[in-house]
Amino acid sequence: MNDVVAKENAVVELMRLSPLADELAERFARAGHRLYLVGGSVRDALLGRRSGDLDFTTDARPDRVLKIVSDWGDAVWDVGIAFGTVGVTKKGMQLEITTFRADSYDRVGRNPEVTFGDSIEGDLLRRDFTVNAMAVELATKTFIDPHDGLGALREKVLDTPATPQESFADDPLRMLRAARFAAQLGFTAAPRVVDAMASMAGEIDRITAERVQAELSKLLLADDPRPGLELLVETGLGDRVLPEVPGMRLAIDEHHQHKDVYEHSLTVLAQAIDLEKSHEPTSEPDLILRLAALLHDVGKPATREFQPGGGVSFHHHEVVGARMARKRLRALKFSKEIIDDVSQLVFLHLRFHGYGKGEWTDSAVRRYVTDAGPLLTRLHKLVRADCTTRNRRKAAALQATYDDLEARIATLKAKEDLDRVRPDLNGEQIMELLGIKPGPDVGKAWKFLKELRLDRGPLEHDDAVAELKKWAAEQGIGNS
């Protein structure tokens, strides 16, 4: 397909996707202004991808934009008006309309000195990548592509409208966006972009942790995060934003053969993503599972020990790794829930390997379920994904063993409420039976009964009472 036909098709597809764009363009034209669909909306239409939101740019200044859309949109907001952006919701779609920009940057922080431009060409020049620097003038249905974004799209190449050095100096976050687009779109960064990312990696330190985290999260939620992660590691950006990942690249010498932990972790991540869709699938990509898969072995470099005879061990790497994951995710300003869940999955990911050929008692199975709590489904996926051996017989044996563990969990769940394992007596019953008041002794008794419940399963009421009184007498607690 030649470029002319592709451009015509893009315009037709864009209009089909959103008649709202045509309707809005008429309002701007009546007001004497031009309106362009721009950026990701155009790119995604050319790729045949559905874009939920639409981005526009215009020669109208922000106060003028507000007047044009105020009686048209279902809701209008001006939170970004200082940066020239007015938001509109119409028929369930979110639209953003931004005045042409011709910003300048102090190249110390990231926030620009906002200045408005007068041409679409000037606006497109300041955008991050050529594939995002295409526009459609809606009144005339004209395709505008001054930097051959269509060619870059065809070749699946990420390049910048200006030089990469200028672009990244203006906004270093664009380097992370390059990695994110490599993951989301499967594009390859142009050699000059890779060179600039490598030489300017330190500039990312100008960006707040919250913005870095947002880009990393989007990268990890892509269908295939690996190309993006590899680009971060290759350019040294990974050393700045997620140093534990490149830190897993362990040298393998002729005397101490073992898996490359970095490559293994990328494979585990890919397999975890496959399991999202097949083994108890979720409706959305699972950031917690993906972070846990990527970071599950980050403790290995710090715990590596060479053994006599050429062996290598990583004792307690799950403990060290959980601590490292918690520290990094906290530095990246992830939520407490995500930090807690990911670090717990890292901590638990080795537990299954003590299962052997099914030697665990019912008590051990209960503890596995209880310690995982609401993370059990994710833990199932992580443990299964962690099998990367090329030995088919060994891989099949590991999966069969985990099948057996899941079957045992299901059997116990049918008999007991494993999801909410609690003592057979509550706090009020403990105080009444032992004749004690609220305080530390009640907590100790509750913990004893909880451990008893995990060891022996549900007890009859009289048996639980007898065990409590026996324990209390031994501890010198209460009237027993």
Automatic annotation (TrEMBL):
SMART domains: HDc. It is an enzyme of class 2 (transferase). The keyword tRNA processing applies. Its EC number is 2.7.7.72. One of its GO terms (biological process) is tRNA processing. GO terms for molecular function: CCA tRNA nucleotidyltransferase activity; metal ion binding; nucleotide binding; tRNA binding. It comes from the Bacteria. Pfam families: HD, PolyA_pol, PolyA_pol_RNAbd. Keywords: Magnesium, Metal-binding, Nucleotide-binding, Nucleotidyltransferase, Transferase, tRNA processing. Its cofactor is Mg(2+). Residues 261-412 form the HD domain. NCBIfam families: HDIG, tRNA_CCA_actino. PANTHER family: CCA TRNA NUCLEOTIDYLTRANSFERASE 1, MITOCHONDRIAL. This is CCA tRNA nucleotidyltransferase (EC).
